[in-house]
Amino acid sequence: MSKLGKIVSVLLFVCLIPLPVLAGDFDGTKPLLGATIKIFECTEDQGCSEVTLEDAGVPRFFIIDFNEKVIRPTKEMGIDKVSRIERMEHVDGKLILQGAEDGVEGVRDGVGWTIAISEETGKLILTASGEGVAFVAYGACTPQP
């Protein structure tokens, strides 16, 4: 079989996998690798504008570990901050994760956050809000082996 024939065979096999099997990858039973794609910062005075991940202090890649109930940046990010998942619930085909962060010690920058992950596609939306500021981030997840 030619190289192209093998590729087509694999693609056909993947397309024939029933969606419920794929949907199980995003239900909180398997660890996920997440990627932040875009983030917006919102304030009452200035509205919302897109900011860089670095300016928002958000890692581009992170691991969601459901067994330990934590979200941590990948080692390549060089960030040590771990966020605890305090609540996890399934709502209308979404896996909802929630928590709160104190931020930098001595600075009033704490936030409450929610991540909604589509159990069908793995796409995610993060919202975080604090005193006078809110963030909305868009991203996606893929299952970890």
Question: How would you explain this protein's 3D organization?
Answer:
With 145 residues, the chain is α+β, with helices and mostly antiparallel strands. Helices cover 16% and strands 46% of the residues. The protein contains three helices and ten strands; from the N terminus they run ααββαββββββββ. It has helices at 3-16, 19-23, 53-56; strands at 32-43, 47-51, 61-65, 70-73, 83-84, 87-91, 94-101, 111-118, 123-129, 134-143. Strand 9 (123-129) and strand 10 (134-143) form a beta hairpin. The two termini are 29 Å apart.
Largest sheet: 10 strands, antiparallel
Number of strands: 10
pLDDT < 50 runs, ≥5 residues:
1-23
Which class best fits the helix and strand makeup?
alpha+beta
The rough form would be described as globular
Mean pLDDT: 83
CATH class, please?
A: Mainly Beta
Write the topology of this structure.
Layout: H1 3-16, H2 19-23, E1 32-43, E2 47-51, H3 53-56, E3 61-65, E4 70-73, E5 83-84, E6 87-91, E7 94-101, E8 111-118, E9 123-129, E10 134-143
